[in-house]
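Workshop exercise sheet. Pairs work together: one partner reads the sequence aloud, the other fills in the structure field after running the prediction. Swap roles for the next sheet.
Pair: D.N. / O.F.
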Amino acid sequence: MDHVDRITAQWNTERPDLDTGPMGTIGRISRLSQHLSREHAAQFAKHGLNLASFDVLATLRRTGAPHALTPKALMATTMVTSGTMTNRLDRLEQAGLITRTPDPKDGRGFLVQLTDQGFTLVDQAVTAHVDNQKRLVAPLNDEERSQLDALLKKWLAGFEPSDG
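Structure field:
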C-alpha cells in the first residue's frame, strides 16, 4: 500500500459513493512529478543551472547550428511570457552563456545565440540529464516504459493538439 492508496482508502471509508480511481491515478502522477522535479533540479544545480536556464540553453542547443533563435521563437518553445524570457536571457547573458545580436532578417529584433561556453555547458548538462532520466525510469523495463509512454501520449492528446 502506498501513500495514495492510504488517501483513497480514507475517502472510500468516508465517502463510499465516490469513485476514487481517478484520484489514485492523478495522485500518483502528481507525486511522481514532484519527485522528478526535485531530481531534475538537483542534477541541473550540479552544472550551475536551474530548470529555466537549462530549458533556454537546451532549446538553443537542439535547434542546430548556429544555435540561435529569436526571443519570440524561444518563448513559443518554452511557453513563458516576454518578461519572464527577458529575465532569463539577462541572467544567461550575464553568465556568458548566450549573446544577443541584431537579427539580420529583422532590424528591430535580435537573435539569442549560445556562446562557446554556453554550448559546452549545455552539452555537459544534457548528457548528465539523459543519464539521470535513464536512472529515474529504471524501475520500468523497456516494454513497461513503452506502454506507459503510449498511454500518457493518448491522455496528453486530450489536452494538447497534435504537432503533426
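Discussion prompt: DSSP finds seven helices and three strands in the chain. What would you look at next?
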